Amino acid sequence: MIQSLIKAANVLEALKDSDHELTIAEVSETVDIPPSTAHRILSTLIKVGYVEKNERTHLYSLGAGLIPLGIKASSYIDPQSVSKEILKDLSKETSEDSFLIIKSGDNGLVISKAEGSHSLKIVENFGLEIALHKGAIRKTILAFQSDEYIDYYLSKKLENYLDGVVDKEKLKSDLKEIRNQMYSVSDSEYISDAIGIGAPVFNFKNELLGAVGVVVPRDRINKDNESKYIEAVKNCGMEFSKRLGYSKY
């Protein structure tokens, strides 16, 4: 019975992860079970509404019966509780302090933090609000706002970076690039000699929750290890999003 439940769960995962409806053969191959077993599981899941079959094409997809379950499950998820474990793993991997930041008006607000093992720290205090265009984590939040909001934001008088006036055209171009590559990197925009790396976090409604990332003293980052920091932060954002029910990764 337990093995049957595991196989059924794996079938649902296969349908969830696919970008198209699946045939019985594709389900069989993906889950590594015989076609007859795949057919039996799919038929059972159809009866409870968890899978739908297109009678014209004979293809299978997730059913509407899962929607109430997902909504109910999501109501028990506390993003801050999830963030504690996620950020702890990011700090362990990078040895740096890691942060979850959300949008607060036109600013970014730290709401969760994990400490890394390095003794030299970059200070980001809880409750401190900093403009969204300053630093990679906050800039990631800005990049995933609506076009209307970004136009509004860029129309404002923006606080300068440490090294000078904000170039709004460059900022607008940077925001598009962040959306495309799903991460951001900044250099000393509001903390001297500090490199920021941020990635987006989405919830089960496919809405932006905020952004996660690290802020690292410049002398600890070089061409050889920068990509590892970026990969760690991106993976953190993806894992966080998945745990909140985001389905597009």
List keywords for this structure.
about 250 residues, six-stranded antiparallel β-sheet, two-stranded antiparallel sheet
Describe the structure.
This protein is an alpha+beta fold and 249 residues long. Helix content is 45%, strand content 20%. It is built from 9 helices and 8 strands. A 6-stranded antiparallel beta sheet has the order 5-4-3-8-7-6. β6 (184-187) and β7 (194-202) form a beta hairpin. The chain starts with a helix and ends in a 6-residue tail after the last helix. The model has no long low-confidence stretch (mean pLDDT 89).
Shape: elongated
Low-confidence stretches: none
Rg over C-alpha atoms, rounded to the nearest angstrom: 22 Å
How much β-strand is present in the residues? 15-25%
Report the helical percentage: 40-55%
Rounded mean pLDDT is 89
Number of H- or I-type helical stretches:
9
Strand order of the largest sheet: 5-4-3-8-7-6
In N-to-C order, the SSE pattern is HHHEEHHEEEHHHEEEH
Number of strands: 8
What distance separates the N and C termini?
30 Å
Label the structural class: alpha+beta
Biggest sheet character: 6 strands, antiparallel
